[in-house]
Write the structure tokens for this entry.
Amino acid sequence: MPEGKSIVSDFGRYNISYSTSEQGFICSRAFSPTKGVFPAEDFDNFKSFFDEIRRQENKRVILTKK
């Protein structure tokens, strides 16, 4: 099972977690952007924040029977 991840920056918060229950596999995600206007100099950090979120969102999970 993939590990969960929390990302916090000036641009917002993102959290993803994985668990299992009697009903099956659960993937919980939360994204809370920070409202505001950011200077152009912050663009690289802004892009890095969203690139990491994209990497987390694109993870693949392989389910197998035991």
